[in-house]
Structures are given as structure tokens and as C-alpha cells.
Amino acid sequence: MSDIRALKLRAVDDEDLGIIAACLHGAIGCLNEMAYDREARRFAAILVRPLWESGVETSAPETSAPETSAPETSAPETSARETSAREPAVTPEAPVEMPMLPQLPALKRMRAGLHFDHVNAVRYRRLDRRAPHALLHLISIVSAPLSERFGIILSFQGGGEVFLEVDKLSGQLRDLDATPNETPPQAKSPPPAT
Predict the structure, then answer these.
(1) DSSP state, 69?
(2) Cα 64–67–69 angle (5° rounding)?
(3) How many CB atoms lie within 10 A of CB 140?
(4) Which of 112, 102, 18, 117 is nearest to 64 (CA)?
(5) According to DSSP H, which parts of 27-143 are helical?
(6) How far apart are CA 7 and CA 52, in angstroms?
(7) CA distances to 32, 110, 127 from 176, in Å
(8) Distance between CA atoms of 190 and 179, rounded to whole angstroms?
(9) Is 99 helix (H, G, I), strand (E, B) or coil?
(10) pLDDT tens digits, residue range 145-167?
(11) Using CA atoms, how far apart are residues 152 and 122, in angstroms rounded to an integer?
């Protein structure tokens, strides 16, 4: 994954949170990789996110794609009864030719750290805390205004949620497995000798 640059995003408003949610849509995690530090007032999670940005380059349609379906011919209309009388029934042994689907590249994934600061309380809804290693598929992250505070809701497939009660919206997403955006000093090439 050396060709992928590390993603580092900060959320201070709903628009920022929407961008982080889009990057994490479809991410996989488990309760075992989520923690709340009450003293630091921080909720943190490690998720394996899809690299949506890597799919942008490869998802362009090919110009010379082969025809996947047979060309339509004008055949006389016949009823289903007439067709079944003329054609033999398909048996399980008879090979059935299926149209080929275009080969799409698999979407790459990367571990990412997500944390929110100024967290007063964390509530787990419809998540089995007795199965901390069960995989959870993240669907969305949204904020909800409360009376004097905010709520951040991490929603998972199957209806489970992690609800964070926060004083203000302050979060960060950072890729953990990618190369940093800047070249480290030891990797820079030395100046040419004269």
C-alpha cells in the first residue's frame, strides 16, 4: 500500500463530520476495538475502512468492453405454451451459458483510527456487548442536537448504534497503515555532488 497516501481529517462541524462519514461508509470494526476514556473524555475506535479514493481511478468504464449479451433479433411472437412444446426442458446436467460480468477491481481497505473529544457519556444500543469480536459494518455517522449538548451517532448494519454525548463536535480520522503525506527526511535524495 505504498502508493496510497495517509488520510488525516478533522471534524469541527456537521459538514466535516459528513466527509468523515463518507470515508468510513462500509468500514468494519468490532466492540473490542472501541474504547471510552472517561478521564480524557475521549472515545476512540479502530476501523478497517474501504479506500473509496483508490476506486476512483479504476472505476472508469472501458471503451473496448466486449458485448455481454446477444444482439436482439426480431423473432415472431409465440405464446409460452408453444415455446415449451418446441424446446426441450433444461435439465440439471445441461450447461447453462451465463453472460459474463465485467471484471471490477476489488476495493482496497486500510485500518483507520477515529476519535472524538469532549465526550461526556457513551451508550451502546442494540449491540451485543457479550460478543466483543463480532464484526460490525458502519453505515453512517451523524450528529444530533440535544438540549445543551450534541449527540454523535455511529450507526451499524442491523440497527446497532454507539451514541456519544459531547459538549462540542471535535473528531479526527487518521489512516494507520499508509505512508505519510510528506516524505520523511531520511528518504530524501542527497544533493548532487559537484
Answers:
(1) S
(2) 160
(3) 14
(4) 102
(5) 52-58, 80-86
(6) 11
(7) 17, 7, 26
(8) 21
(9) coil
(10) 888 888 999 999 999 999 999 99
(11) 10
Give the separation between CA 17 and CA 170, rounded to whole angstroms. Answer: 9
- Rounded Cα–Cα distance for residues 138 and 157 (Å): 6
> Could you tell me the pTM of the whole model?
0.67
Is 45 in contact with 119 (CB distance < 8 Å)? no
Write the pLDDT tens digit of every residue in 3-36: 677 899 999 999 999 999 999 999 999 999 999 9
Residues 6 or more apart in contact with residue 158 via CB below 8 angstroms: 126
Query: Count of alpha carbons within 13 Å of 24, Cβ hemisphere only?
Result: 32
- Phi, psi values for residue 21, rounded to 5°: -60, -40
100-121 residues labelled b (16+ CB within 10 A) or e (exposed): eeeeeeeebbbbbebbbbbbee
